[in-house]
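Category: protein sequence paired with discrete backbone structure
Discipline: computational structural biology
Format: plain text, a pair of labelled lines
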Amino acid sequence: MIRASARILLLALWCLCATPFPIVAFVFTLGSRTARARTGPFLNRYFSRGVCAILGVRIERTGDPPPPGGCLVTPNHWGYVDVFVLGAIYRSVFVSRADVAGWPVIGAFARAGGTLFLRREVRRDTARVGDDVEHHLRLGCRVTVFLEGGAGDGRSVRPFKSGLVSAAVAAGAPCVPVALRYTLPRDPDLDPGEVVAWTSDEFLAHAWRLLALRRIDAEVMFLPPRTGTDRKRLARELESDVRAVIERAPR
């Protein structure tokens, strides 16, 4: 309880110190999505590194990070922690569920970071966000999208949805599959699939348990890029690459 309370205080102070950055980003971009796509990822990386430090996240990276220039990054998805872990490693625009835009504090930083918000329950919204993703890829931006369509417990990889992969096909951009795995070396009796993954709990209850963890080890495995002209086949290949790593990982 003391650890979680202390981290809440540190996160509040970190957000307070970082508050000028979304304001400055808004002023300088003046609502331009092109300008926000270029400046937002710098802000996101700076903010994410601070959050990871406060949460006690230690990142181990293997493989080459996404190359400079336009590319679609496709990791498996545990929950909101993924955004901070990946954002701390490389500059990227993220695609997120739409309700995050309205979250206190986090929503403001997500918007300032250039996040693209997708309404999952509206089928045609995939086409709208896909156009935005293609636009960013053609600008030379990295775009990170969780193709599983939601968070899982990390024990397996669910089918990758191909809708947003079409943006990479249209832009001729490479796709970089990423396998994410979390372990809790100082809390071995706890299951990362229950306390790191966010699948069903209320956000505040989950965040409280997460904040109480002593340390989170994040293993980020960047796999060889893929390209293709068939979005469905490409999505299956990306899914297969990630699944091959996750399912052979020790439990």
